[in-house]
Specification:
Helix content: 40-55%
Strand content: 5-15%
Largest sheet: 3 strands, parallel
Strand order of the largest sheet: 1-2-3
Shape: globular
Radius of gyration: 12 Å
Structural class: mainly alpha
Order of helices and strands: HEHHEHEH
Number of strands: 3
Length: about 80
């Protein structure tokens, strides 16, 4: 599913809540889509996840102000709307 969304350029950003989820996403997605994935803004819950994402190849990473749903939603909103 995510590969077809990437292919159709229908994703504006990604959220990841753990390093394990980040690694699993890359395992599930064919390598031919990794560069498209790395170009999307990635919103994460911690600096630890950000460091893992940088090491993998993500370019634009936003860390939520707190590790909770409200802060994650606020970071997504800010990323997509600038508000």
């Amino acid at each position: 599913m995510i590969d077809s969304l990437l292919q159709q350029q229908q994703l504006d950003a990604l959220t990841i809540t753990s390093v394990e989820a980040l690694n699993n996403l890359l395992v599930m997605l064919p390598p031919t889509y990794h560069q498209r994935l790395f170009a999307l803004p990635l919103i994460v819950l911690s600096d630890r996840i950000k460091q893992a994402a940088v090491a993998i190849g993500f370019k634009q990473i936003i860390v939520a102000t707190e590790a909770n749903d409200k802060a994650l939603a606020a970071a997504v909103t800010e990323c997509l709307t600038g508000e």
